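Subgroup meeting minutes
Present: P.N., E.W., G.H.
Scribe: E.W.

1. P.N. recapped why we're keeping a running log of single-chain structure predictions: easier to compare across weeks, and new members can see raw inputs and outputs side by side.
2. G.H. added today's entry (113 aa).
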Amino acid sequence: MEKIETYRQYVLDIYNDYAQIKPVNLQDVDNQLIVDTERNHYQLVSIGWDRKLFSYTVIFHLDIKADGKIWIQVNNTDRDIAEELEERGVPKSDIVIGFQPPQYRQYTGYAVA
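Output recorded in log:
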């Protein structure tokens, strides 16, 4: 359980850092952190108006599974969030690139499941 708490804090730290970034070309779009600590689901979304169009984009979606592995479900940025987790001390064996097809995960250098 302690590992999950530690990983939760790492995820929240990364999300909070990223949530502070506001694109200059999207003045009416805000970043929102959506956190379900009971089930360990974490999303960072941008939401608002881009001129006359409503915008809703999932920036990051990570889950921490009961076995303590962090699943990167969505990463719609150029940041290497897996590397950022590693830099904080998460071993590659505890990171799953969930958006990669299962048959290709073995080539990512991270856990397959």
